Amino acid sequence: MPSLTGSPEFNIDAYLDQRAANPSFTMVEIGHAEFPLPYQQPFEFEGDRRYFGFESWLRDPLGSRLEDLAELHYQHGAGKNITYMYLDPGGVAIKKRPWRSPEYEGSYDPTTPLPAGIADEVVLANVFSDPHVAFNLDRTTKLLSEVSRLAKVIGGEVVLREIGTPQYLTLLSEQILAEAGLQIDARVEPSDEAWGKLEPVYEGERDKENPRTPQPGSFYLFLSKIQPREPFMSDLGSLGLGQTGIDLP
Ligand SMILES: C[S@@+](CC[C@H](N)C(=O)[O-])C[C@H]1O[C@@H](n2cnc3c(N)ncnc32)[C@H](O)[C@@H]1O
Q1: Which of 10, 15, 36, 87 has the most CB atoms in a 10 Å sphere around its CB?
Q2: What is the best residue among 127, 163, 201, 220 to mutate for testing ligand 1's pocket, by most ligand atoms within 8 Å of CB?
Q3: Which residue range is the domain that position 180 belongs to?
Q4: What is the mean pLDDT of residues 38-66?
Q5: d(CA 32, CA 5)
C-alpha cells in the first residue's frame, strides 16, 4: 500500500474523549457483518445518540448470519437508538469459496438513504480491503465518496480499521482520498501506543471472543473532510463581485 501518513496535530486521546462526551453522537457503520460496534461503546445509544448500521451481506445473500446479529441485538441493544439496514448495492459476490475471490457481478452502488453530513463518525472495519471492493477502483471510489458524503463537514471523522487483508489495499491513495474530499488525520499501527486504546472501541464483538491477530501492515486511518478554503479576493473578482460596489473587508 502506498504510504499514507497523518498529521501530527491530530490527538487520538482527545478524539476518543470528545466522541464519548458528545451527547448527540451519530455513528454510521458500513459493512458490520454479524459483529457490529454499537454495544461496546463507552456510552449507550440513548437520548440523541444514534447508531446506523448498513450491511450488504455480499457473501451471505440468504442472510444466515442475520440470526447472530439479531441475537447480539436482543442481548445488548433492544430499545436503544440502534438501527440496522440492508443495503442492496445492485450486485452480488458470485463465488462464496474461496471467500477471498474478488469475483463480483452487477453494479456496486453503496449510497445509503441517510442525508449528507449526518455522521459524527463513519466507521468501516475491513471493508475497503474486502476483495470485492479492494481490487476495483470504481467500487473503492464509490464507497469513499459515500462515506465522505455521510461525514459532517466540520467535525466529522471517518475511521477505517484494516487488520484482515491490509495488503489488498493497493488502490487506496492520498489522491483518491482527496478526490473524495477526505484528508488523513492519523494513521495508527499495532506497534503504536494508541492501538490499545482503539481496539476496545473498534474491534467487533466476535473479535473479542475469537480475536484475530492483526496481519502485517494492519492499520487504522482517521480521515476528515477537506475544508473548503476561504475565497480569495481574486475569486470574488472573477465572480463579478469586485464590480458590484460591495465593500470587501
Ligand atoms: C470483510 S467483511 C468485514 C466485516 C467486519 N466489519 C469485520 O471487521 O470483520 C466486509 C463486509 O462489508 C460488507 N460490505 C461491502 N460493501 C458494503 C457496502 N457498500 N455497504 C454495506 N456493506 C458492505 C460485506 O458484505 C462484508 O460483510
Answers
A1: 36
A2: 127
A3: 12-238
A4: 91
A5: 25
